[in-house]
Write a structure and sequence with these properties.
Length: about 300
């Protein structure tokens, strides 16, 4: 899917609400700003980020004395782009690994159902397409389905997978995966981990242990901890980001399922709030439906 198609529902919903908010009004006044605030919050931009955007628009109104509602779209686009340009989010051009280090160890975290396995499969596909040697590790050993699902993706992409039985020690799977990757001289290892948020201490302990054991094979592993969030859950995605960033050091984000939702504004809020780069967005179930997130393209596509 293209980005435009992926964002269609979010755009339709946002501009539908926006046009209601400005209907019959020619100038941006307090009432329009109040309504705009509601539109942004209900589009899952998040309260804090919404307030920042509103303040910026208020400042423009104050400065220019008059702002026509017909200019609102362009102004919003400018202000959101400028807000995002202050975060280090979405600056990648392509599915490039940030270093040539071998193996590059990517650990993937996130609660069940967010699209973690799918994202791993799509990433494996992209890296393999570049000629990279990829190894997957099924360290989400809590659910048999998780291991099976990852196997399905390993077969689909045709990359090796290291796994053990359900219930085995995730750290042990991670250890085996890294060993195998080193032996095969692999370029990149992608480790799936269990994401049970119901017990934060357990989650924290498990992720810490997985990291510690990986470091016995590759001293500074992991190179990246990618948190996968389901964009269609809106505010839940914010909550999960909060919990995971408390439990472990998260270095990048993937926001999935933007195609099926009107909550695409969540990407703007999450980029602004967490100061962790959104690197990837999921815009469909197919293997090609993962995109490198680019904040400028995102805003352009949203506001055009
Ligand atoms: P996990 O439990 O987090 O590993 O989740 P899965 O990867 O198994 O995905 C759960 C469901 O979400 C599956 O049906 C996927 O096809 C679907 N899914 C994942 N990413 C996307 C996406 O970007 N868009 C859509 N529409 N569906 C997705």
């Amino acid at each position: 899917q293209t980005l435009d198609k992926g964002l269609e529902k979010s755009k339709t919903s946002f501009f539908g609400k926006l046009s209601k908010a400005v209907a019959g009004k020619s100038k941006v006044d307090d009432e329009v700003l109040d309504d705009l605030e509601e539109v942004l919050v209900s589009s899952d931009v998040g309260v804090d980020t919404t307030l920042k955007i509103i303040e910026r628009i208020e400042a423009r109104v104050a400065k220019d004395k008059y702002l026509g509602t017909d200019e609102l779209n362009g102004i919003l686009r400018e202000e959101i782009a400028s807000l995002l340009s202050e975060t280090n989010t979405g600056e990648q051009e392509d599915f490039m690994l940030p270093t040539d280090k071998k193996p590059y160890v990517l650990m993937v975290v996130g609660v069940n159902g967010v699209g973690k396995t799918t994202t791993i499969g799509k990433l494996a596909y992209q890296f393999k397409k570049q000629g990279k040697k990829v190894v997957l590790g099924a360290a989400d050993t809590f659910r048999a389905a998780a291991i099976d699902q990852l196997q399905v993706w390993a077969d689909r992409v045709d990359v090796p997978i290291v796994k053990q039985q359900m219930g085995s020690d995730p750290a042990s799977v991670a250890f085996d995966t890294l060993k195998s990757a080193v032996n095969q001289d692999a370029d990149v290892v992608i480790i799936d981990t269990a994401g049970r948020l119901h017990n934060k201490i357990n989650l924290m302990n498990e992720l810490t242990k997985v990291k510690r054991v990986m470091q016995k094979v590759v001293p500074d592993a992991p190179d990246e901890v990618l948190l996968v969030l389901d964009g269609s859950t809106g505010q839940n995605a914010f909550e999960q980001a909060k919990q995971f960033t408390k439990a472990t050091e998260v270095s990048s984000l993937a926001v999935t399922k933007l195609d099926g939702t009107a909550k695409g504004g969540v990407v703007i809020g999450i980029s602004d709030q967490f100061k962790i780069p959104v690197k990837y967005i999921g815009v469909g179930e197919a293997i090609e439906d993962l995109q490198v997130f680019n904040k400028y393209e995102f805003v352009d596509s949203f506001f055009k």
